[in-house]
Amino acid sequence: MPLRLAWALSLALLLAACVSPRGPAAFAPPGPPPGPPAAPPPVERVVPLSALPGWAQDDHAAAFAAFRATCKVSGDQTIAAVCRKAKAGPALGPAAARQFLEQNFEAERIDGEGVLTAYFAPRYEARRAPDAEFSAPVRPKPADLVSVDGGAPAVARRGANGALVPYPDRTVIEATAPAGALAWMRPEELFLLQVQGSGVLVFEDGRRMKALYAAHNGRPFVGLANPMRERGLLPPEGASAEAIRAWLAANRGPAADELMRLNPRYVFFSLAPDDGSEPAGAANVPLPPGRAMAVDPSRHAMGDVFYIDADAPILSGAFPAYRRLVMGLDVGGAIKGAVRGDLYIGSGPAAGAEAGRVRHRLKLYRLRPKAGAIR
User: Fold this and answer.
1) How far apart are CA 18 and CA 37, in angstroms?
2) Cβ atoms of residues 201 and 183 within 8 Å
3) Residue 356 burial (CB < 10 Å; 0-12/13-18/19+)?
4) Which residues pair with 270 in a beta bridge?
5) Are 248 and 260 in contact (CB under 8 A)?
6) Residue 348 and residue 199: Cα distance in Å, rounded?
7) Which H or E element spans position 187?
8) Measured distance CA(307)–CA(339) in Å, rounded
9) How far apart are CA 248 and CA 195, in angstroms?
10) What local confidence, expressed as pLDDT, does residue 157 receive?
11) Residues contacting residue 109 through CB under 8 Å, at least 6 positions apart
12) How does pLDDT run across 81-118, given as a tens digit for each residue?
C-alpha cells in the first residue's frame, strides 16, 4: 500500500476512534446499576388550616357562622367542646373568624380522590288536580311500606303470607293508581324533585308548600347522565341537570318515561307550609347554602367538619373550583365512599343552574379539633 494512502487510512481510523460512542469509555468497567427512581415527597396527612389550598380566599365569617349554627348536631365530644366556645361568643367578622378556626382546628387529609356534585332546593309549579301537562302525582308515603332495621331488604312491604318482600320499583309504582295524591306535577319535574329530595311547590292560586322527603322504595338510585350520553342524547360535557330536564320536557311521553324508569328508586313526600327557611337535611337542621354537604353516613357522622378542595370540572359552564369549609349535614342515595360529597347550593333557579354543573375532582380534608383547643 502506498505510504500516503496508509497514513491517510491510519489518520481516519484514529479520528473515528475519537468520536465514536464505542471509544475508550465503552470498555471501562461497568458501574453499579441505576437505583429505583426517587419516591415523591410524602403527603402531609395533618396540616394547619393555613396550609389548605384556597384557605386564605375562603369567606371565614360565613364558614364560622355555618359551624356555629349547625355544630350542635355533632355527637363528637371534641367538636361539641369547640361548638360551645363558638356559641358562647358573638358572631365574628372575617379576621376574627379565621383566627378562631385556625386556633381550634387542624386538617387531616382523607386518602384518595373522589367526586363532588351539588344539589339544590327547587321551586316547581304544581296543581291540585291533574291535567294533560301536570300528570304526575306527588305520592305520600304508602301505608304498606316498612323500614327494616338491619334487614334485607331494608325497605319492604308485607306479602300475602305476611312475609317481607322488596318494595316495587318505579315502573310498578307509576303503573298503580295514586292513593291520596298530594299534588300533581310535570313528570320530568317530579323526577328531578325526587332526585333532589325536597323543594317548594307553587300552586295555581300562588300558595306555596314545602315538599319534604318522607321515604323511598329501597331501590338503588340510577342517574340519567351516563345513559343519555351513551345514547348520544346529550354531549359528554353537556349532561347537566338542566340539560337533562330540558330533554325530558321536550320528549315528554313514552320516550322520556322510558328513560326515567331506568332509575328504579321512587321517593315519597309530605307537604308542609313554606315558611321561607332552608330545608332541613338528615341532621334535622336547616342547610346553610354553600356550606352544607351530603356525605356517606357509613363513613362519616352528621356534624363532621370538612374542607373541600374540588377542581377539574367536566361539565361546561361550571365554576373552576370549590374550596371551602363545609359541614356534613345530609345524606344521599348516590353519595357513597369516604371521598364523595354533594354540596347544597341553595334554592331557586340560580342555585339549580349552578348545582347542575358541579361534577369536580374532590380532595377532602376532615377538620379535627386541636388537642389544646378542647382543654
Assistant:
1) 33
2) yes
3) buried
4) 212
5) yes
6) 9
7) helix 187-196
8) 11
9) 14
10) 85
11) 43, 44, 45, 46, 47, 363, 364, 365
12) 999 999 999 999 999 999 999 999 999 999 999 999 99
